Amino acid sequence: MLMVVFGAGASYDSFPSVPAPSPPPEFQDFEARPPLASQLFANRDFFRDIVRQYPKCLPLIADLEPRTGAGSSIEEVLEQYQAQADSEAQSQLWAIRYYLQKVIQQCEIRWNQLTRGVSNYSSLFNQARRSGPVCFVTFNYDTLLERSLGAFEIEFPSLGNYINDPKCTLLKLHGSTDWTYWIQKRSTNIRKNELTPDELIREAPPIGPTTLVRKVGETPEEAEREVYFPAPALAIPVVSKSEFVCPELHLNALRTLLPQITHIAAIGWRASERHFLAMLGAHLGKSINVTAVCSDETESQQILERIRSAGVSGRFQAVPDTFTEFVRRHGIEAFLK
Asked: Looking at the domain assignment, is residue 25 inside a domain?
């Protein structure tokens, strides 16, 4: 069984007509392209408009926006803030979740207007599906992959649909722009019918293993809605990446599928998620075929080494391709053979 693991580089290069890193000269809407992790706080006009909606983000922007030369990555900066126990830092992190949700949603709207449904995601699945069921794992918040699977009548109206289609399983281990936490109210001054993001950001409620995760449109029972309210279900991008943001039933499905996996293709994924790598090392079989698709061959080798160091054994192949190049030459079919 094939597992394809996607990172931000996959969505960044998901439209073959404007491939990364060298789109055609007539391509002008650079703000539409889904951002890489390092670009999440870039000085794009509509990014800054969204920041203004969540003022608690503003003190962090100087540390988070891309810059040349030495400096901490956004993952390093946010990990430092996540380790702080003071209420102001926790409020800022909640503001970041709202910001990330809105930024990715707006990029996706612009990208879909540009692509008109054409996607490397759907082409890849069309090439892979002939070899049997596919397990997709993505660390992206966007819903570009879900949209692309609609061409195959694979839909995701509820969280159960992500794991019960015989053609493919989709596991979003760091959350999604259309998922919500249902957070227990801690204060009676938060009114049931007048909730705002500002109220939740100020409260900065903790998130624990029992925090409910639901798809937008799936709400708790009426009695639960009296004591819970929704908030973006997204993992904060940090270095250690030890937090899964998905239902436990999805993690159980992953543990069940891993012993069946024979091939793993990493596309636009840096293999820095230690919690996921630990699961691969613990549950995969003894001889797996692994390929890392990355335009930089040295980085492809580094990705493979991180996977190997997690305890995965088998045949490892670096593929110095972009996502677009890999799809155009039907690389997944050659890999599966």
From this structure: yes
Confidence of residue 223 (pLDDT cuts 50, 70, 90): very low
Dihedral through CA 18, CA 19, CA 24, CA 25, nearest 10?
90
User: pLDDT of 263-275, one tens digit each?
Assistant: 999 999 999 898 9
Question: Per the omega criterion (within 30 degrees of 0), is the bond before 21 cis?
Answer: yes
Rounded distance, CA 284 to CA 304, Å? Answer: 15
Question: What's the domain count of the chain?
Answer: 2
User: For the whole model, what pTM was predicted?
Assistant: 0.91
Partners of 181 in the beta sheet? 213, 231
- Residue 239 inside a domain? The answer is no
Percentage of the chain exceeding pLDDT 90: 63
Compute CA distances 278 → 241, 255, 258, 272, 312, whole Å.
12, 11, 12, 11, 9
Same-domain pairing of 66 and 168: yes
Using an 8 Å Cβ cutoff, are 291 and 317 in contact?
A: yes
Question: Which strand (E) or helix (H) includes residue 329?
Answer: none
For residues 120 and 326, give the distance between their C-alpha atoms in angstroms, rounded to a whole number: 9
Statement to judge: residues 44 and 107 lie in one domain: yes
* Res. 71 pLDDT band, cuts 50 70 90: low
Look up the domain containing 193 and give its range. 177-234
Beta strand 2-6 pairing with 134-138: parallel
- The CA distance from 249 to 93, in Å, is 26
Give the three-state DSSP class for 196.
Answer: coil
**How far is it, in rounded angstroms, from Cα 226 to Cα 228?**
6
Residue 174 per-residue DSSP state: B
Instruction: Convert the pLDDT of each residue in 117-174 to its tens digit.
Output: 999 999 999 999 999 999 999 999 999 999 999 999 999 999 999 999 999 999 999 9
